[in-house]
């Protein structure tokens, strides 16, 4: 099962200091760690929400570090693409996996698969037994739809205003955090359904 999906910054942004990452969108699936943990039972809903927000921010920081290291070691320059060149940006995306130890930030060990597309990071946090190849395909598919239909790479793109559309994408491509094995015919019908909704 996928624990969470997030979109965050992976490059320095003028409003942030050099080591920071801003979470633009996050969706957590499954039971909340805070509910399961004995010591967090007495927390109020607001305190649980803040704890969850901090866990997501910790994942974003670790992924941002991994993206920076990957980009520095490859020596490739990031080429800004124009609207309409989303597929080219996705082909040039950096990708990788970060193993998150138990307690850092989730109670059990997890894997964070990430794609770094220009200044944006798209991350899936999966349970340790999850099929990482299937998760990578799902992450690439989600990222492609976000870039193509929501135009996230353009100037002035406001991800926060498009959160309801991202929710719909997740409900179709990653229902309740479950990775889907898709045959060709089902994948085509899903593509048509998503394209029809995004065209509204």
TrEMBL record:
<dbReference type="GO" id="GO:0016197">
    <property type="term" value="P:endosomal transport"/>
</dbReference>
<dbReference type="InterPro" id="IPR029392">
    <property type="entry name" value="AP-5_subunit_s1"/>
</dbReference>
<protein>
    <recommendedName>
        <fullName>Adaptor related protein complex 5 subunit sigma 1</fullName>
    </recommendedName>
</protein>
<dbReference type="GO" id="GO:0030119">
    <property type="term" value="C:AP-type membrane coat adaptor complex"/>
</dbReference>
<dbReference type="GO" id="GO:0000724">
    <property type="term" value="P:double-strand break repair via homologous recombination"/>
</dbReference>
<dbReference type="Pfam" id="PF15001">
    <property type="entry name" value="AP-5_subunit_s1"/>
</dbReference>
<dbReference type="GO" id="GO:0005770">
    <property type="term" value="C:late endosome"/>
</dbReference>
<dbReference type="GO" id="GO:0005829">
    <property type="term" value="C:cytosol"/>
</dbReference>
<dbReference type="GO" id="GO:0005764">
    <property type="term" value="C:lysosome"/>
</dbReference>
